[in-house]
Design a protein that fits this description.
This protein is mainly alpha-helical. It has four helices and two strands; from the N terminus they run ααββαα. It has helices at 4-12, 21-28, 52-55, 61-75; strands at 31-33, 38-40. Helix 2 (21-28) packs antiparallel against helix 4.
């Protein structure tokens, strides 16, 4: 439930505490989180984000998790 594309609605509804487990699970399953939904990380040729993890030039599970955390933080 706590994916970035839902965080604004949840915050508006009064939720003020969010768990990072959905971000971790999305990263483990290859989910590249955006403000509009989930994309498959391995299918992306160019990363459509300007966060530090995407601009590092490296691709891997750690960078995907860092991106997902950054996307959630930006949404909040």
């Amino acid at each position: 439930m706590g994916l970035p594309h839902r965080l604004a609605l949840l915050a508006y509804s009064g939720f003020d505490l969010f768990d990072s487990l959905p971000l971790i699970m999305a990263s483990e399953n290859g989910g590249y989180l955006t403000s509009t939904g989930v994309l498959r990380y391995e299918r992306l040729k160019d990363l459509p984000c300007s966060c530090p993890a995407c601009n590092s030039g490296e691709r891997g599970r750690a960078q995907l998790l860092d991106h997902n955390y950054a996307t959630a933080e930006i949404e909040l």
